[in-house]
Amino acid sequence: MTTTEPALHPLRYLKQSPAVRERFDALKKRPVVLSVRNLYKTFPTPGGSVTALRDVSFDVYRREFMCVIGPSGCGKSTLIRILAGLEDASDGEVLLDGNPVSGPGPDRGMVFQSYTLFPWLTVKQNVMFGPRMAGKRGATVESEARQWIELVGLSRFENSYPHQLSGGMKQRVAIARALANRPRILLMDEPFGALDAQTRCQMQSYLLQIWKNLDITILFITHDLDESAFLADRILVLKANPGEVNEIIEVPVPRPRSSDQFITSEFVATKHRIDQLIHPESQSKSDEIPFPRMTVEGDDVE
Ligand SMILES: Nc1ncnc2c1ncn2[C@@H]1O[C@H](COP(=O)(O)OP(=O)(O)OP(=O)(O)O)[C@@H](O)[C@H]1O
Ligand SMILES: [Mg+2]
Asked: Which numbered atom of ligand 1 lies nearest the CA of 223?
Protein backbone atom coordinates (compact mmCIF):
# COMPACT_ATOMS: atom_id res chain seq x y z
CA MET A 1 0.00 0.00 0.00
CA THR A 2 1.30 3.47 -0.82
CA THR A 3 0.12 6.56 1.01
CA THR A 4 0.31 10.04 -0.48
CA GLU A 5 1.71 13.12 1.19
CA PRO A 6 -0.78 15.43 2.87
CA ALA A 7 -1.89 18.25 0.54
CA LEU A 8 0.17 20.83 2.40
CA HIS A 9 3.43 18.93 2.72
CA PRO A 10 6.20 21.05 1.12
CA LEU A 11 7.68 17.99 -0.58
CA ARG A 12 4.59 17.83 -2.75
CA TYR A 13 5.36 21.27 -4.22
CA LEU A 14 9.12 20.77 -4.48
CA LYS A 15 8.57 17.55 -6.41
CA GLN A 16 6.54 19.38 -9.03
CA SER A 17 9.38 21.68 -10.10
CA PRO A 18 10.27 21.09 -13.79
CA ALA A 19 13.91 20.22 -12.96
CA VAL A 20 12.84 17.56 -10.46
CA ARG A 21 10.18 16.13 -12.79
CA GLU A 22 12.71 15.97 -15.64
CA ARG A 23 15.19 14.12 -13.41
CA PHE A 24 12.71 11.46 -12.30
CA ASP A 25 11.11 11.07 -15.74
CA ALA A 26 14.62 10.37 -17.09
CA LEU A 27 15.33 7.91 -14.24
CA LYS A 28 12.18 5.90 -14.97
CA LYS A 29 13.08 5.64 -18.66
CA ARG A 30 16.21 3.68 -17.76
CA PRO A 31 16.11 -0.14 -17.79
CA VAL A 32 14.98 -1.80 -14.56
CA VAL A 33 17.93 -3.62 -12.95
CA LEU A 34 16.15 -5.00 -9.90
CA SER A 35 12.47 -5.81 -9.76
CA VAL A 36 10.81 -6.98 -6.56
CA ARG A 37 7.31 -8.39 -7.09
CA ASN A 38 4.79 -9.11 -4.29
CA LEU A 39 7.44 -10.36 -1.89
CA TYR A 40 6.36 -12.10 1.33
CA LYS A 41 8.52 -13.53 4.09
CA THR A 42 7.17 -15.39 7.10
CA PHE A 43 9.38 -16.87 9.82
CA PRO A 44 8.08 -19.74 11.94
CA THR A 45 8.86 -19.07 15.62
CA PRO A 46 7.88 -20.96 18.81
CA GLY A 47 5.37 -18.18 19.59
CA GLY A 48 3.72 -18.39 16.13
CA SER A 49 4.75 -17.17 12.71
CA VAL A 50 6.22 -13.69 12.18
CA THR A 51 5.42 -11.91 8.91
CA ALA A 52 8.59 -9.93 8.25
CA LEU A 53 7.58 -8.75 4.75
CA ARG A 54 4.13 -8.45 3.18
CA ASP A 55 3.44 -7.76 -0.47
CA VAL A 56 6.58 -5.67 -1.07
CA SER A 57 6.95 -4.50 -4.68
CA PHE A 58 9.31 -1.95 -6.19
CA ASP A 59 11.74 -1.43 -9.09
CA VAL A 60 15.28 -0.06 -9.05
CA TYR A 61 16.48 1.53 -12.28
CA ARG A 62 19.94 1.30 -13.82
CA ARG A 63 22.46 3.49 -11.94
CA GLU A 64 19.84 4.53 -9.42
CA PHE A 65 20.84 5.05 -5.79
CA MET A 66 17.92 3.81 -3.71
CA CYS A 67 17.83 3.92 0.08
CA VAL A 68 15.57 1.76 2.25
CA ILE A 69 14.57 3.14 5.63
CA GLY A 70 12.09 2.06 8.29
CA PRO A 71 11.69 1.36 11.98
CA SER A 72 13.78 -1.33 13.62
CA GLY A 73 12.41 -4.80 12.87
CA CYS A 74 10.46 -3.74 9.77
CA GLY A 75 12.28 -6.30 7.62
CA LYS A 76 15.08 -4.26 5.99
CA SER A 77 17.78 -6.89 6.54
CA THR A 78 15.37 -9.70 5.64
CA LEU A 79 14.65 -7.90 2.36
CA ILE A 80 18.30 -7.42 1.46
CA ARG A 81 19.15 -11.02 2.42
CA ILE A 82 16.43 -12.27 0.06
CA LEU A 83 17.75 -9.99 -2.70
CA ALA A 84 21.26 -11.34 -2.10
CA GLY A 85 19.91 -14.91 -2.32
CA LEU A 86 20.94 -15.69 1.27
CA GLU A 87 17.33 -16.29 2.33
CA ASP A 88 14.34 -17.70 0.42
CA ALA A 89 11.16 -15.65 0.05
CA SER A 90 7.89 -17.22 1.23
CA ASP A 91 6.18 -15.86 -1.88
CA GLY A 92 6.77 -13.39 -4.69
CA GLU A 93 9.78 -12.97 -6.92
CA VAL A 94 12.99 -11.04 -7.37
CA LEU A 95 14.27 -10.35 -10.88
CA LEU A 96 17.74 -9.08 -11.73
CA ASP A 97 17.91 -7.78 -15.29
CA GLY A 98 14.69 -9.74 -15.84
CA ASN A 99 16.09 -13.07 -14.57
CA PRO A 100 14.76 -14.67 -11.37
CA VAL A 101 17.19 -14.68 -8.43
CA SER A 102 17.41 -18.07 -6.78
CA GLY A 103 20.62 -17.97 -4.74
CA PRO A 104 23.75 -15.93 -4.12
CA GLY A 105 25.68 -14.78 -7.20
CA PRO A 106 28.53 -12.46 -8.21
CA ASP A 107 25.99 -10.20 -9.98
CA ARG A 108 25.04 -8.87 -6.50
CA GLY A 109 27.74 -7.40 -4.23
CA MET A 110 27.05 -7.25 -0.48
CA VAL A 111 28.46 -4.87 2.14
CA PHE A 112 27.32 -5.38 5.75
CA GLN A 113 27.53 -3.20 8.85
CA SER A 114 29.88 -5.63 10.59
CA TYR A 115 33.42 -5.90 9.29
CA THR A 116 33.54 -8.98 7.10
CA LEU A 117 37.06 -8.92 5.64
CA PHE A 118 39.11 -12.09 5.98
CA PRO A 119 41.56 -11.18 8.78
CA TRP A 120 44.28 -13.54 7.53
CA LEU A 121 44.40 -11.91 4.07
CA THR A 122 45.89 -8.56 3.09
CA VAL A 123 43.79 -5.79 1.55
CA LYS A 124 44.84 -6.85 -1.94
CA GLN A 125 44.23 -10.55 -1.24
CA ASN A 126 40.78 -9.73 0.16
CA VAL A 127 39.91 -7.82 -3.02
CA MET A 128 41.29 -10.61 -5.23
CA PHE A 129 39.32 -13.28 -3.34
CA GLY A 130 36.07 -13.06 -5.37
CA PRO A 131 37.68 -13.06 -8.85
CA ARG A 132 39.94 -15.99 -7.77
CA MET A 133 36.90 -17.93 -6.52
CA ALA A 134 35.39 -17.29 -9.95
CA GLY A 135 38.41 -19.06 -11.45
CA LYS A 136 40.35 -16.02 -12.64
CA ARG A 137 44.12 -16.30 -12.45
CA GLY A 138 47.22 -14.39 -13.50
CA ALA A 139 48.50 -10.83 -13.43
CA THR A 140 45.22 -9.26 -14.57
CA VAL A 141 43.50 -10.30 -11.33
CA GLU A 142 46.18 -8.48 -9.36
CA SER A 143 46.23 -5.37 -11.54
CA GLU A 144 42.43 -5.16 -11.46
CA ALA A 145 42.48 -5.52 -7.67
CA ARG A 146 44.95 -2.63 -7.53
CA GLN A 147 42.54 -0.50 -9.58
CA TRP A 148 39.67 -1.19 -7.17
CA ILE A 149 41.91 -0.41 -4.21
CA GLU A 150 42.95 2.84 -5.89
CA LEU A 151 39.29 3.69 -6.49
CA VAL A 152 38.64 3.57 -2.73
CA GLY A 153 41.84 5.55 -2.04
CA LEU A 154 43.80 2.81 -0.25
CA SER A 155 46.72 2.12 -2.60
CA ARG A 156 49.22 2.72 0.23
CA PHE A 157 47.58 -0.03 2.26
CA GLU A 158 47.29 -2.84 -0.29
CA ASN A 159 49.64 -5.07 1.73
CA SER A 160 48.16 -4.21 5.13
CA TYR A 161 46.00 -6.63 7.10
CA PRO A 162 42.47 -5.67 8.24
CA HIS A 163 43.53 -5.24 11.90
CA GLN A 164 45.91 -2.48 10.77
CA LEU A 165 43.03 -0.41 9.28
CA SER A 166 40.46 1.95 10.79
CA GLY A 167 36.74 1.10 10.62
CA GLY A 168 36.19 3.46 7.68
CA MET A 169 39.15 1.96 5.79
CA LYS A 170 37.85 -1.56 6.39
CA GLN A 171 34.51 -0.60 4.88
CA ARG A 172 36.29 0.94 1.88
CA VAL A 173 38.06 -2.39 1.33
CA ALA A 174 34.70 -4.17 1.72
CA ILE A 175 33.30 -1.93 -1.04
CA ALA A 176 36.33 -2.62 -3.28
CA ARG A 177 35.98 -6.35 -2.60
CA ALA A 178 32.29 -6.28 -3.54
CA LEU A 179 32.98 -4.25 -6.70
CA ALA A 180 35.81 -6.56 -7.82
CA ASN A 181 33.21 -9.16 -8.79
CA ARG A 182 31.71 -6.61 -11.20
CA PRO A 183 28.20 -6.85 -9.73
CA ARG A 184 25.17 -5.30 -11.42
CA ILE A 185 23.94 -4.03 -8.06
CA LEU A 186 25.56 -3.24 -4.73
CA LEU A 187 23.41 -4.27 -1.73
CA MET A 188 24.48 -2.41 1.41
CA ASP A 189 22.98 -3.12 4.85
CA GLU A 190 23.80 -0.15 7.14
CA PRO A 191 27.42 -0.24 5.96
CA PHE A 192 28.40 2.90 7.90
CA GLY A 193 26.29 2.16 10.99
CA ALA A 194 29.28 1.31 13.19
CA LEU A 195 31.36 4.36 12.20
CA ASP A 196 31.67 7.64 14.11
CA ALA A 197 29.68 10.58 12.73
CA GLN A 198 32.62 12.28 11.00
CA THR A 199 33.96 9.15 9.30
CA ARG A 200 30.42 8.30 8.29
CA CYS A 201 30.02 11.65 6.47
CA GLN A 202 33.36 11.09 4.69
CA MET A 203 32.29 7.59 3.65
CA GLN A 204 29.00 8.90 2.26
CA SER A 205 30.91 11.34 0.04
CA TYR A 206 33.34 8.59 -1.04
CA LEU A 207 30.45 6.32 -1.93
CA LEU A 208 28.79 9.01 -4.05
CA GLN A 209 32.06 9.54 -5.92
CA ILE A 210 32.44 5.81 -6.56
CA TRP A 211 28.82 5.52 -7.69
CA LYS A 212 29.23 8.47 -10.05
CA ASN A 213 32.26 6.91 -11.73
CA LEU A 214 30.95 3.38 -12.22
CA ASP A 215 28.05 1.70 -13.96
CA ILE A 216 26.60 0.48 -10.69
CA THR A 217 23.15 0.51 -9.12
CA ILE A 218 22.96 0.76 -5.33
CA LEU A 219 20.37 -0.38 -2.78
CA PHE A 220 21.40 1.02 0.59
CA ILE A 221 19.74 0.31 3.93
CA THR A 222 19.99 2.91 6.65
CA HIS A 223 18.39 4.08 9.90
CA ASP A 224 19.63 7.60 9.36
CA LEU A 225 17.32 10.25 7.86
CA ASP A 226 20.20 12.57 6.89
CA GLU A 227 22.13 9.73 5.27
CA SER A 228 19.16 8.71 3.12
CA ALA A 229 18.33 12.28 2.05
CA PHE A 230 22.01 12.90 1.21
CA LEU A 231 22.60 9.71 -0.80
CA ALA A 232 19.39 8.64 -2.48
CA ASP A 233 17.57 9.33 -5.70
CA ARG A 234 14.55 7.67 -4.14
CA ILE A 235 13.86 6.42 -0.63
CA LEU A 236 11.75 3.33 -0.01
CA VAL A 237 10.09 3.82 3.38
CA LEU A 238 8.94 0.59 5.02
CA LYS A 239 6.54 0.26 7.93
CA ALA A 240 6.74 -2.40 10.60
CA ASN A 241 4.58 -5.34 11.72
CA PRO A 242 4.37 -6.52 9.05
CA GLY A 243 7.03 -4.90 6.84
CA GLU A 244 5.19 -3.22 3.98
CA VAL A 245 5.98 -0.43 1.54
CA ASN A 246 4.78 2.79 3.15
CA GLU A 247 5.89 5.25 0.49
CA ILE A 248 8.59 5.77 -2.12
CA ILE A 249 9.95 9.31 -1.81
CA GLU A 250 11.55 11.00 -4.82
CA VAL A 251 14.31 13.12 -3.28
CA PRO A 252 14.19 16.61 -4.83
CA VAL A 253 17.70 17.58 -3.61
CA PRO A 254 19.75 18.30 -6.78
CA ARG A 255 23.03 16.54 -7.59
CA PRO A 256 25.97 16.81 -7.08
CA ARG A 257 25.25 16.63 -3.36
CA SER A 258 27.19 18.48 -0.69
CA SER A 259 26.83 19.35 2.98
CA ASP A 260 25.84 22.91 1.94
CA GLN A 261 22.47 21.42 0.97
CA PHE A 262 21.66 20.31 4.52
CA ILE A 263 19.80 23.56 5.17
CA THR A 264 17.94 23.73 1.84
CA SER A 265 14.16 23.40 1.76
CA GLU A 266 14.48 20.26 -0.42
CA PHE A 267 16.67 18.51 2.14
CA VAL A 268 14.67 19.57 5.19
CA ALA A 269 11.33 18.68 3.57
CA THR A 270 12.63 15.22 2.62
CA LYS A 271 13.78 14.53 6.17
CA HIS A 272 10.54 15.83 7.62
CA ARG A 273 8.49 13.57 5.36
CA ILE A 274 10.52 10.47 6.33
CA ASP A 275 10.14 11.39 9.99
CA GLN A 276 6.37 11.76 9.58
CA LEU A 277 6.18 8.31 8.01
CA ILE A 278 8.46 6.57 10.51
CA HIS A 279 7.13 8.31 13.62
CA PRO A 280 3.46 9.06 12.95
CA GLU A 281 1.82 11.39 15.51
CA SER A 282 -0.46 8.63 16.85
CA GLN A 283 2.61 6.53 17.59
CA SER A 284 4.54 9.35 19.31
CA LYS A 285 1.60 9.72 21.74
CA SER A 286 1.58 6.00 22.50
CA ASP A 287 5.39 6.14 22.98
CA GLU A 288 5.03 8.71 25.80
CA ILE A 289 6.13 7.28 29.13
CA PRO A 290 3.66 7.78 31.99
CA PHE A 291 5.85 9.64 34.47
CA PRO A 292 4.92 10.81 37.96
CA ARG A 293 5.38 14.56 38.52
CA MET A 294 8.37 15.19 40.82
CA THR A 295 8.42 19.01 40.70
CA VAL A 296 6.24 21.67 42.34
CA GLU A 297 3.23 22.71 40.25
CA GLY A 298 3.92 26.03 38.50
CA ASP A 299 7.70 25.41 38.41
CA ASP A 300 7.54 24.37 34.74
CA VAL A 301 10.27 24.53 32.16
CA GLU A 302 8.00 24.27 29.12
N1 LIG B 1 15.69 -16.00 11.31
C2 LIG B 1 14.62 -15.42 11.86
N3 LIG B 1 13.73 -16.13 12.58
C4 LIG B 1 12.64 -15.56 13.12
N5 LIG B 1 12.33 -14.25 12.98
C6 LIG B 1 13.18 -13.48 12.29
C7 LIG B 1 14.36 -14.01 11.69
N8 LIG B 1 15.03 -13.00 11.05
C9 LIG B 1 14.28 -11.89 11.25
N10 LIG B 1 13.17 -12.19 11.98
C11 LIG B 1 12.12 -11.24 12.37
O12 LIG B 1 11.71 -10.55 11.21
C13 LIG B 1 11.48 -9.19 11.49
C14 LIG B 1 12.36 -8.32 10.61
O15 LIG B 1 13.72 -8.47 11.00
P16 LIG B 1 14.91 -7.70 10.25
O17 LIG B 1 16.19 -8.11 10.88
O18 LIG B 1 14.76 -7.92 8.80
O19 LIG B 1 14.56 -6.19 10.61
P20 LIG B 1 15.39 -4.85 10.32
O21 LIG B 1 14.44 -3.88 9.72
O22 LIG B 1 16.62 -5.16 9.57
O23 LIG B 1 15.74 -4.38 11.81
P24 LIG B 1 16.97 -3.46 12.30
O25 LIG B 1 16.63 -2.07 11.85
O26 LIG B 1 16.92 -3.58 13.79
O27 LIG B 1 18.24 -3.98 11.68
C28 LIG B 1 11.72 -9.01 12.98
O29 LIG B 1 10.48 -9.11 13.66
C30 LIG B 1 12.62 -10.17 13.32
O31 LIG B 1 12.43 -10.57 14.66
MG1 LIG C 1 18.71 -4.92 9.99
From this structure: 25
